[in-house]
Structure formats: structure tokens, C-alpha cells
Write a structure and sequence with these properties.
alpha+beta, 15 strands, 2 domains, 7-stranded mixed beta sheet, 5 helices, 4-stranded antiparallel beta sheet, 19% strand, 461 residues
């Protein structure tokens, strides 16, 4: 009897001990499930969130560049159709970079309609007369453009577990700045104005070639149309000239109309050749300037010749006066008097918003690199040069008064021979480098640049 009771008692104790363990086992399973879900959520946030932010930044950069390019085209007189075409073309080029591969596969830019605000499935391009408020209109002459890319889906890694659909968008507004009161990024060269009238391009004719710098054997006086090196921001000597001509600009440098700037005496042939020829990708070293990119377009035609007097060899009539073409330009010829076929800015591929060709025109040497490229950059053969007053100035160290800046196109590679190291450039227009825009909206300098504006519809713009 006692044994039976003892057995019954132990059985009851065992049952009492088992039940709490069973309840604890269920609680641990719930806690484990919650913890595992939390870990997955954190992993999803880190992996998918980082992936989203990375591609958002890449998309914003591409849209910013396209907006700036379209605004520049508008500033140069492009129609709304041409500005949309330019923006879309640059966007396509940037999306071809390897790091933008996922964006490229997700953004549909096929069959673009440049007459419509919705250019493609994901791309919208609008125009306005003012940056703020940005009021979309379809009026030719509008100076401000907004580019939007919407609903760009991205690959999900763990986000689908949380029912989170990853997609990004980006928008950017760009257009003319207020007038510039401080110019920088000017090449340290100056050209003597033919006259002091800015509305007359200081006497220069667009499309005319000039000797931007004479060779070592020429000793021409400094007068209208002549070029000389400058000491910008106090820089002097071959090393400074070499890097500055290659494109190493001092961001804090200011060149304003009316400034007094010292000239750099001497020819400094080696540094000039090495610095400028980086733009063709043919520099022969010197001064550790290998980091400067070449131009996509390095095409060249017949070389423009310079005579012993330091003048370009041009066609002359029976009276010995220069013959002018239909546009009023002199006509360069070779030593036998035959008209030469030099490479002009009109043939230069980046002058068009369309994708450039992949080879030089027939009869021209050099090459054109396909975009994108890690060793080339657009527009390297175009740069601004200071225009100044040179009345009474002679060779050597002088001080000139600035009038403005003119944009020139580097026609040909600079020869390595000192007595033939002439720098030949085609005048394009009176222009500016980049610079500091005035904070006063009423300030007038006749010079502006293209800048990005904040888009209220996009906090990341």
C-alpha cells in the first residue's frame, strides 16, 4: 500500500516538473523567431539600404550632369528639342559606365521623343523662365531646365522578405547663374585685343586662326592680336606654366575686368609643349603631369604654318594683301601656296550634342575615342584665354589690363621643335571660364555660367 502511494507521489512530482519545461520550450521558439526576424531586418537594412543609397547617388550624379549639359546648350542658343536631345545623349553616355550597369538596364530610354516633356518611359525634361519657382512652360528661349527620372527599380536582396520594393528617382534643375564677378580656370595666356569693344568680340572674328604663342626663334613685338604667357595668381616659372597649361587651375584665383596682371617673360617652350599636348595625349613627360586626361577628339589635319616674321602663312592676292573667304577669314596655305585642310572647330566632335564618331574624317590623322573612357575628357581642346590691352607693351616682363576672356580651340598639337613650337588656336567667342557668381541679382558683368539649383521636388538635388 505504502509503495503504491510512493509511486503515485513520484509520478505526480514528475508530471509537475515536466509541464514548466514544455511551456519554456515554446517561449524560446517564439523568442528565437523574433530574434531571427530582427537579424534579417537589420541585414536587409544594411544590404538593401546601402545598395539603394549607392545607386541613388549614381543616378543623381548622372541627372545633374545631363541638366548642366542641357542648360549649357540652352545658353548657347539651342532649341528645346536640341536641349532634350543633348541631355538624353549625355545621360546615355554616363549610363554606359560599368558602375552604372544596373541603372542602365532599369532605365528605359528607347525611342525618345524630343518634342515631348516625357522624353522616354522614365525620363521627363521640362523648361522654365526662372529657377524658383520652377514653372514648366514650352517657350523657346527658356534658360532653365529640369530633368527627372522616375520609378527606377533596383534588384532586391533581402528586401522582398519585408515586402519592401526598392526604387529610386532623381531630379535636377540647372540654368544660367547671376552674372560672374570673379573668373577662374583661365589658361595663363593673354591675347592683345584688336579693339576694346566687347560687343565686337574685341575685334576678333569667330572662326579665324591665330598664333596663340610664337616659337623660340620669333621676336615679334607685343601688339594687337599677339599672345603672351601670364603670371596668374603669382605663379611663375616652367613648372607652374606646364601644369597650368595642362589644366591645373587655382580655384581661388580671381580675374576681373580691369585687373592688372603681370606677363611671363621668355618662351618657356618645353613646359608649354608638355602642358598643352596633354590635351592630345601626346605629352612626352616632364613635371609629373600624367594625371591630366586627353581630349576624346585628337584629330588633326594639315599643319598651319608660321613664317619667319611670326605670322601665319595665308593666301595673298597680286598686291600682296590677304585673300578673305566668304566669311571674311584669311585662308592658310602651305609653303607652295596651296590651301591647306586644317582641323576646324566645326569638325570637332564635342561641338555637337550628338554622339561623336569613332574615327577622324577622311584625310585627317589622330583618333577619336569611344565614350565612356577613363583616359579622356570632353572639351579639353577648348579653353578660355585672358584678353587684355597691350598698347605700348614690349617683350619682357610687363603688366596688362584685362578686358575679358575669349574661348579658343587648339587646332593642332604643339611641335616639339623650339623654333616651330607655335601654338595655333581658332577664336570661338568671347566667353568665360567658370567663376564666382555674384550674390547681388542686380550685378551686371555680361558674363555668367551654368549652375545647379535646388529642386523643391527633390531633397537630394
Amino acid at each position: 500500500m505504502w509503495e503504491n502511494r510512493q509511486f503515485l507521489f513520484h509520478g505526480m512530482v514528475n508530471k509537475m516538473n515536466i509541464r514548466p519545461y514544455r511551456k519554456q520550450g515554446g517561449a524560446i521558439l517564439v523568442m528565437f523567431t523574433i530574434g531571427l526576424f530582427s537579424l534579417i531586418a537589420v541585414a536587409a537594412l544594411a544590404l538593401d539600404g546601402g545598395h539603394l543609397l549607392l545607386n541613388k547617388g549614381r543616378l543623381q550624379n548622372a541627372v545633374d550632369a545631363s541638366a548642366l549639359y542641357a542648360a549649357k546648350e540652352l545658353q548657347d542658343g539651342a532649341s528645346l528639342y536640341e536641349a532634350r536631345e543633348a541631355a538624353t545623349t549625355l545621360l546615355l553616355q554616363n549610363l554606359q559606365y560599368q558602375e552604372n550597369g544596373e541603372l542602365n538596364s532599369s532605365i528605359d530610354l528607347s525611342a525618345p521623343d524630343y518634342n515631348s516633356t516625357q522624353v522616354a518611359a522614365n525620363l521627363f525634361i521640362e523648361f522654365s523662365e526662372w529657377p524658383d519657382p520652377f514653372s514648366p512652360i514650352l517657350v523657346e528661349g527658356s534658360e532653365y531646365v529640369r530633368i527627372r527620372i522616375e520609378n527606377v527599380g533596383l534588384t532586391n536582396f533581402l528586401a522582398q522578405i519585408m515586402n519592401f520594393d526598392k526604387s529610386v528617382r532623381a531630379s535636377a534643375i540647372a540654368g544660367r547663374s547671376t552674372d560672374i564677378e570673379c573668373l577662374n580656370k583661365a589658361v595663363p595666356m593673354m591675347v592683345c585685343a584688336l579693339n576694346e569693344d566687347e560687343d565686337d568680340d574685341f575685334g576678333f572674328s569667330p572662326g579665324t586662326v591665330h598664333i596663340m604663342k610664337i616659337g623660340s626663334n620669333a621676336d615679334s613685338p607685343i601688339g594687337p592680336g599677339n599672345f603672351q604667357l601670364l603670371r596668374l595668381d603669382g605663379n611663375s616659372g616652367g613648372a607652374d606654366i606646364r601644369r597650368a597649361l595642362a589644366g591645373d587651375f587655382t580655384l581661388g584665383l580671381c580675374v576681373e575686368d580691369g585687373d592688372e596682371i603681370p606677363t611671363e617673360p621668355g618662351n618657356t617652350v618645353g613646359p608649354v609643349v608638355q602642358g598643352l599636348n596633354t590635351r592630345f595625349g601626346t605629352d612626352k613627360g616632364g613635371g609629373n603631369i600624367s594625371e591630366f586626361k586627353r581630349d576624346f577628339d585628337a584629330c588633326q589635319g594639315d599643319r598651319v604654318l608660321v613664317n619667319d616674321d611670326g605670322d601665319i602663312v595665308v593666301q595673298l592676292d597680286e598686291a600682296g594683301d590677304p585673300v578673305l573667304d566668304a566669311d571674311g577669314h584669311t585662308i592658310p596655305v602651305d609653303s607652295a601656296g596651296a590651301i591647306i585642310d586644317y582641323y576646324t572647330h566645326a569638325e570637332y566632335s564635342p561641338a555637337s550634342p550628338l554622339l561623336p564618331p569613332t574615327s577622324c574624317p577622311t584625310g585627317f590623322s589622330g583618333d577619336i575615342l569611344s565614350k565612356p573612357s577613363s583616359i579622356a575628357s570632353t572639351g579639353r581642346r577648348e579653353f578660355p584665354i585672358v584678353i587684355g590691352i597691350c598698347d605700348g607693351v614690349t617683350n619682357g616682363a610687363n603688366t596688362i589690363t584685362t578686358l575679358g576672356t575669349g574661348c579658343f580651340f587648339l587646332t593642332q598639337e604643339v611641335s616639339q621643335k623650339g623654333n616651330e613650337a607655335h601654338v595655333i588656336g581658332e577664336f570661338l567667342s568671347v566667353c568665360s571660364g567658370s567663376g564666382s557668381a555674384s550674390l547681388d541679382p542686380t550685378y551686371e558683368s555680361k558674363v555668367s555660367t551654368v549652375v545647379l539649383y535646388r529642386d523643391p521636388d527633390s531633397p537630394d538635388s
